Amino acid sequence: MVKILGLLDLFVAFLLLSVVTEVDFPKGVIILFAVILLIKAIPFLPDIGSFFDLMAGILLILTLFMVISQTILIVAIVLLSIKGIMSLFA
User: Global pTM?
Assistant: First the structure.
């Protein structure tokens, strides 16, 4: 189960990377994965990893409505990627 959640983190990092590189994904896919990430974050909120999930989910939704700084997006991509890779190898 942890490996599936790690893959989810990596896919969301990929979605955020697509925002930075201006590759279009269907809005439904973006909203679906943002909601899944938010739902995944809520039960474990005191954990710092869940805080990253929560912020990434919010950022992913915000990218649909406004322009977010690339620096903020890249930091989120790096944090989610590290978290996802660590989940895959733990």
Answer: 0.88
